[in-house]
Specification:
Number of helices: 27
Organism: Mangrovicoccus algicola
Helix content: 25-40%
Family: Belongs to the prokaryotic molybdopterin-containing oxidoreductase family.
CATH superfamily of the largest domain: Dimethylsulfoxide Reductase, domain 2
Strand content: 15-25%
CATH topology of the largest domain: Dimethylsulfoxide Reductase, domain 2
GO molecular function, one term: molybdenum ion binding
Shape: globular
CATH class of the largest domain: Alpha Beta
Radius of gyration: 26 Å
Bound molecules: ligand MGD, molybdenum atom
Structural class: alpha/beta
Strand order of the largest sheet: 5-4-19-18-17-6
Keywords: Metal-binding, Molybdenum, Oxidoreductase
CATH architecture of the largest domain: 3-Layer(aba) Sandwich
Largest sheet: 6 strands, mixed
Number of domains: 3
Pfam family, one: Molybdopterin_N
Length: about 775
């Protein structure tokens, strides 16, 4: 397989290196006779290897090169069709594709109305501020169709972003203006990280990152004597530089461990009573639960030991080490991407409150610190370029991870954040910049859900499984093939993203596709405001320039910015944000919770009367209990070698695979009795489906746990099977499609239970990257 460019893209001379940005880091690149050459940003102390996916991806056969229409849709017109996901595609001209799509959008808009269009289009897309696909599709649907049913929250933090406003206040402030990496380096004395702060994760930030500082900050803290304690089934969730103690816990048991830590503090009189009295509400109520006064079961270390797999003595010793020191409690996003995921987030706050360090530099609650590069940093003091999405004429929405429920159950009632809501009847789904066959759970169910639509439209740069389910597939450029501005609200460098290569085949920018489509619907002017892409960049640049001028800083005009290597933006002070202000004066700077305090008991949540999320943190029992059929717990976490499913066909991602399959980590003593050796292909399965994966053996994983990252492109051997086998290793054939709780309805993709068996006999080929027939 030759993944190098097939067409000459330079005039024989190598182009100069030009700056560009991606979610996984700033870089510069140039086209040479041998293809794309990429180099990391010179100011980046710890560049991310994921940029090496670009060269092989640019002209890969997996790119979509011309508009395509699914044969069944072309021949029979819109309507439910079980062939979605296994049909043929017919290449058509842009003219024809846009004529058919424009007519279909008008049919829906003027018939069932914009409330029958789902345009949530969740996904990370690419880093530029203008060609941000989700902003583009929303703007298009608002201007040309009168709106769309949207989605709220994210797959990242579905449970925590709903819970936190009730109990702690501003979610954005908690994650983006709280304890910084500089504070960890300078002040923390002990960091207890549930789910860790894996460097693979903080290598990524939406919009781009110029300096990967996390490794250095943790190393500085450790050198100063800060202790790190990792609670996770995987040792790699904290870098070696921390010298961390590893407490290898049973997945989804963290809430019990936190309770036992707090129980120990209380039993030994080590909890900060003054802090609890001054800054929290509901402690008494919770204490009765904690001590067992309420239900007869003290949540002590002896109780937690069998639930967590951590010895009672270890738990008690850890509680004593935490007390009276500048302690930072970190809870990763992963813990809440599970059934009952609200509990560890809430209980983490209670543990931090009992230690009394919230609002002090380097102490308290660093929720999700390290999960993404834009946490633990300072915010820019000038606005980043932002494309307006216009006004959505449809009020209806769903919690983002409830998409299959919505499509399968129009008119069905569901609970969300204290409301009883009803799923709308969606006829058309429009997706640009996301990959639901990457991000959603129970993919067989998702296929059945998409089969019920009249029309599925997808803009894609590659033949993802989502594109293969679409009726109309429109080829879009990848970031390297267009101009944009790279910026992120907490990275100090804003860069011109220069075009590095011409578009592949007939690919076009999302913006140009929407402009022509809007033209067919009488809305071109409203959508484009008469601007070309370059004119938009110039326009979007202005608020940042004005901000610089207001701050009395050099404010280069667009032409100067565009020709340069990027401009430094001023940043807000590292002031600890709202939690610090609250600590200093809880009357003057109350939290935005109903009581103005940290709510250990929430009257609001108690009033919702949800059994799976009562009025204070509780131990709901273990939702992922291995049994005879599925004796292993599977961790489906973020991949090291790519962002989600993006550029899975690139060289860096491909190099991590084993026999072409996604690697799965397993303990050697779990593998031996099953006859599984290093590099073997195994079959992971449960009631929903199965997938193949290539085994990597390691003692750095807890026994009884198997880890398989997300992001291998879904490649079902038989797409029509009720319980499909993905031959490539996508764990979302196995995960369960159920909300975190009736409170938040967040994604629960992180964990499930599986059987593991060696795959013997012939290996089915991976066809995920071959364009469809
Ligand atoms: N089991 C399990 N599942 C999970 C998770 C988990 O932990 N476990 N994590 C979840 C999380 S946190 C997240 S955020 C989601 C991520 O889910 P997604 O954000 O949907 O995943 P991506 O692979 O980033 O999808 C982006 C898609 O946009 C395309 N794209 C890139 N640039 C452009 C562009 O300019 N225009 C257009 N039209 N398309 C473009 C890419 O090719 C890619 O297919 O996954 C979730 N799913
Ligand atoms: N390289 C790379 N980086 C990424 C992404 C990517 O796709 N690739 N995605 C980005 C996105 S969108 C997001 S939202 C963040 C996600 O950030 P997270 O959700 O925090 O990341 P994960 O890697 O899914 O999980 C982190 C670790 O939690 C551990 N873990 C899982 N379950 C449990 C549990 O029950 N208890 C404990 N104690 N530990 C557990 C796992 O060992 C796992 O490695 O990552 C971001 N960073
Ligand atoms: Mo995410």
């Amino acid at each position: 397989m030759d993944d190098r460019p097939r067409i000459p893209e330079t005039d024989g001379e190598d182009a100069p290196f030009r700056p560009h940005s991606s979610h996984w880091g700033l870089f510069s690149a140039r086209m040479t006779g041998d293809g794309l050459q990429v180099r990391a940003h010179p100011g980046d102390p710890d560049p991310n290897g994921i940029i090496d996916n670009f060269p092989g991806a640019l002209r890969h056969r997996a790119r979509v090169t011309q508009p395509m229409i699914r044969r069944g849709w072309l021949e029979n017109g819109p309507g439910p069709d079980p062939r979605r996901g296994r049909d043929e595609y017919v290449p058509v001209s842009w003219e024809k594709a846009l004529d058919l799509l424009g007519a279909e959008l008008l049919r829906i808009r003027d018939g069932a109305g914009p409330g029958a269009i789902f345009g949530g289009s969740y996904g990370w897309a690419s880093a530029g501020r203008f060609h941000h696909a989700q902003s583009q599709v929303h703007r298009f649907l608002n201007t040309a169709c009168g709106g769309y049913v949207r989605s709220v929250n994210s797959y990242s933090s579905g449970a925590s972003s709903v819970l936190i406003p009730h109990v702690m206040g501003d979610y954005n402030g908690l994650t983006k203006r709280n304890v910084t990496w500089d504070q960890v380096a300078d002040h923390s004395e002990i960091v207890l990280a549930f789910g860790g702060m894996a460097l693979k994760n903080s290598m990524v930030a939406g919009g781009g990152v110029s300096r990967h500082v996390e490794r250095g900050a943790m190393a500085r803290a450790a050198a100063r004597g800060c202790e790190f304690v990792l609670v996770s089934p995987l040792r790699d969730d904290l870098p070696g530089e921390t010298g961390a103690q590893w407490l290898s816990c049973i997945p989804a048991s963290d809430t019990a461990l936190m309770m036992a830590l707090v129980h120990t503090l209380v039993a030994e009189g080590l909890h900060d009573r003054a802090f609890l009295a001054r800054y929290t509400t509901g402690w008494d109520r919770f204490e009765r639960y904690l001590t067992g006064e309420e239900d007869g079961q003290p949540k002590d270390a002896a109780w937690a030991a069998p639930l967590t797999g951590i010895a009672a003595g270890e738990i008690i010793a850890l509680a004593r080490r935490l007390a009276g020191r500048r302690a930072l409690i970190v809870v990763s996003h992963s813990l809440q991407r599970a059934e009952g995921g609200e509990q560890p987030v809430w209980m983490g706050m209670v543990l931090a409150a009992a230690l009394g360090q919230i609002g002090l530099p380097g102490g308290g609650y660093g929720y999700a610190l390290g999960a993404i590069a834009y946490y633990g940093r300072r915010n820019n003091a000038v606005p980043a370029p932002t494309l307006s999405q216009g006004r959505n004429g449809v009020a209806d929405y769903i919690p983002v991870a409830r998409i299959a429920d919505m499509l399968l159950g129009p008119g069905t009632a569901y609970r969300y954040n204290g409301q009883t809501r009803t799923y709308p009847d969606i006829r058309l789904v429009y997706w640009a910049g996301g990959n639901p066959f990457h991000h959603h759970q129970d993919l067989a169910r998702l296929t059945r859900a998409f089969a019920r639509l009249d029309t599925l439209v997808v803009h894609e740069l590659g033949w993802t499984a989502t594109a293969r389910h679409a009726d109309i597939v429109l080829p879009c450029t990848m970031t390297l093939e267009r101009e944009d501005i790279g910026a992120c609200s907490n990275d100090p460098l804003m860069v011109p993203m220069r075009r590095l290569a011409p578009p592949v085949g007939e690919a076009r920018d999302d913006y140009d596709i929407f402009a022509d489509l809007a033209g067919r619907m009488g809305a071109r002017e409203a959508f484009t405001e008469g601007r070309t892409s370059r004119q938009w960049l110039e326009h979007l640049y202005q608020p940042t320039r004005e901000g610089l001028a207001r701050a009395g800083l050099p404010a280069p005009d667009f032409a100067e910015f565009w020709e340069g290597e990027g401009i430094e933006l001023p940043q807000d002070p590292d002031d600890g944000g709202y939690l610090c202000a609250f600590r200093a004066d809880p009357q003057a700077a109350p939290l935005s919770t109903p009581s103005g305090r940290l709510e250990i008991f929430s009257e609001t949540i108690a009033g919702f009367a949800e059994p799976d999320c009562p009025g204070h943190p509780v131990w709901l029992g273990q939702p992922y209990r291995p049994d005879a059929e599925t004796p292993f717990v599977l961790i489906a976490n973020q991949p090291r070698t790519r962002l989600h499913s993006q550029l899975d066909f690139g060289g860096h991602s491909a190099a991590s695979k084993r026999q072409g399959r996604e690697p799965a980590l397993m303990h050697p003593e779990d593998a031996a009795p099953l006859g599984i050796a290093e590099g073997d292909v195994v079959r992971l399965s449960n009631a929903r489906g199965a997938c193949l994966a290539g085994i990597a053996l390691s003692r750095d994983i807890r026994r009884g746990v198997v880890q398989l990252a997300t992001g291998a492109w879904y490649d079902p051997l038989d797409p029509a099977a009720e319980h499909p086998l993905c031959v490539h290793g996508n764990p979302n054939v196995l995960t369960r499609d159920i909300g975190s709780s009736a409170l938040a309805q967040g994604c629960t993709g992180q964990l499930t239970t599986v059987a593991v068996a060696r795959h013997d006999g012939p290996l089915p080929p991976v066809r995920a990257f071959d364009p469809p027939a």
